């Protein structure tokens, strides 16, 4: 009950806010009041069952249960069925924690990473594309299915020029690679991660450093793939060696390449569509597992893009007439 209620009643407060209900704690009993009381009871029962199964309940898990499968990312009670029972074979165990996909898109993506040698994860920020890929990579490394983990991303600045960065080669590229460090640190103890990096069994490097290499018996992840050029994408994909797996993640709405330079991710989608052995997996704002506002922000931007595109099409049509 203590874990269900949360520190200072934080979990109950979150449920109250998202569902518009009131949850009263009476000793070992929770009573839910409000129009969505039945939905509140279902959520509490699902969370309690999760705790009984030995799993954690946190703010993200509560938000996922209530919100994640809504079509438009809004927090609408009653839109989804119970989503916490584990899907066989999709719980990814690592040294520090167990990762489990929360949405249907995440489950399909996890399954693809486990079954395919080349997997694309495409969708907005916060949907777990890189996080899940890193979890699967660490799991396969621990199980001895691969000898090393290689994480890479294009060293492209997000809209602002940082200029010359002082220091060694590693110090220059570290700011670009930090999200990958963060993901790895969630699944491997700090000392072990440091040792694996020193032994070159875990590598984190800019995409440009992949040229000329053949990546065998490795799990290779290309993050922020929308910022790879067409030539870089082709170069990376052809590094695949025997016994290796590749995961390519990206968000088509966040391309930071110079104007007029085609994103290699878009080209890869078009060129490789239908090629056997390659899996394309897509996410939407409803799969966001960060703060609930992130999903609303993404949805608002997508709606604005749709309006702008419709207006541009209308102007072009009127001009031709």
SSE order and pairing:
Blueprint: H1 2-5, H2 10-19, E1 22-26, E2 29-33, H3 37-52, H4 59-67, E3 92-93, E4 98-99, H5 104-115, E5 118-122, H6 129-142, E6 148-153, H7 169-187, H8 190-198, E7 202-206, E8 218-222, H9 230-237, E9 245-250, H10 264-272, E10 278-282, H11 292-320
Parallel strand pairs: 5-9, 5-10, 6-7, 6-8, 8-9
Antiparallel strand pairs: 1-2, 3-4
Helix pairs in contact: 2-4, 5-6, 6-7, 9-10
In words, what does this structure look like?
The chain has 321 residues and is of the alpha/beta class. The protein has 2 domains: 2-67, 2-Layer Sandwich (Ribosomal Protein S8, Chain: A, domain 1), CATH 3.30.1370.10; 92-290, Rossmann fold. 43% of the residues lie in helices and 14% in strands. The chain has 11 helices and 10 strands. It has helices at residues 2-5, 10-19, 37-52, 59-67, 104-115, 129-142, 169-187, 190-198, 230-237, 264-272, 292-320, and strands at residues 22-26, 29-33, 92-93, 98-99, 118-122, 148-153, 202-206, 218-222, 245-250, 278-282. The strands form 3 sheets. Strands 7-6-8-9-5-10 form a 6-stranded parallel beta sheet, sandwiched between helices. A two-stranded antiparallel ribbon has the order 1-2. Strands 3-4 form a two-stranded antiparallel sheet. Helix 9 links the parallel strand 8 and strand 9. Helix 2 (10-19) runs parallel beside helix 4 (59-67), helix 5 runs parallel beside helix 6 and helix 9 (230-237) crosses helix 10 (264-272). The protein is globular and about 65 Å long. The model is unreliable at 69-85 and 158-163 (pLDDT under 50).
